[in-house]
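#lab-general

N.A. 3:47 PM
ok so I finally got the sequence cleaned up, no stray characters, all 269 residues accounted for. can someone with queue access submit it? mine expired

B.Y. 3:52 PM
send it over

N.A. 3:53 PM
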Amino acid sequence: MPEPSERPVEPPLWEQWAARSAQMATGERLQKVLARAGWGSRRHCEDLIEARRVTVNGEVAVLGRRVDPESDLVEIDGAPVGVRPGLVYYLLNKPVGVVTTMSDPQGRRTVADLVPDEPRVFPVGRLDADTEGLLLLTNDGELAHRLAHPSFGVEKEYLAHVEGTLSPGSLRQLREGVDLDDGPTAPATVSQPDPGVVRIAIHEGRNRQVRRMCEAVGNPVRRLVRVRIGPLTDRNLKPGRWRHLTMDELRRLVASVSTRTPERGRTRG
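B.Y. 4:20 PM
back already:
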C-alpha cells in the first residue's frame, strides 16, 4: 500500500480568502505606516504601493493593505524599511582609541559610551580601535544585515595617510587588486589627492583591509579615516559626536541595498 504523501495540503480557496480578508481588516493602513516612518506624504506612499514597489512579508502590497508594524516585514524595491516604532539611526564619528563594541572586558572606551543608552543600538560593521571616522549604529536589524553583508556591495571610502608617496604602479595595483594572505582583493576606486594621502573606496569588509593593502604595496598607513558609508558622509561631524540620520539620508541608505531598480509608477493628476 503506497505511503501517504507528506506534502502539506493547501487550505481551500475560501479559507485562503478568509485569512487574507482578516489580515486586511486588522492593523494599520500601509500608506499611513509608511508616511509616519518618513517615506513621504500618504499620497506619495499610495503611489509607491500602486507602482508595486512595496511588499509585505514578501507579497506585493495593494492599496487597503493593513500591517502590524511590530511584526510585518515591509520592503520598498526589495530593501527592508523600518516601520517599527522606536527605530533609530545614529551616525557617529568614532575617535581613535575607541573600540567598536557595546562593552569591553578590558575596560576600554567603547562606541556605546558615545551614544544614548536607550534605545539599545549596535554598530553596523566595525572600525579598528586605531581607525577613526564614520560609523552607523541602529536597532534596525534587517537594514543592518544588508548594509554589513558583502553581497550588497555597499561602498566604504577611506582617507589613508601613508608613509611615502605611492607610485603610479602602486596605485594601479591597488585599483586592480592586491594579493593578501586571505586572497586577492576586489577592484577598488583609488586616487592620490596629495602626496602621501590615498583615497580608497572598497565594498569588501575584511579585517584591517585598507591597512594591509597599503602595506602590501610598500606604503604602511600612519592614519586611517573612514569618510563615507554608501551615500552617508559628513565633514562637519566632529570626532566623538553623533547625530540622527535625516529622512533623506535614510531613504538613500535603503536604496543602496535595494535588490531591484525602482519602476516608474503612475502619477496622479
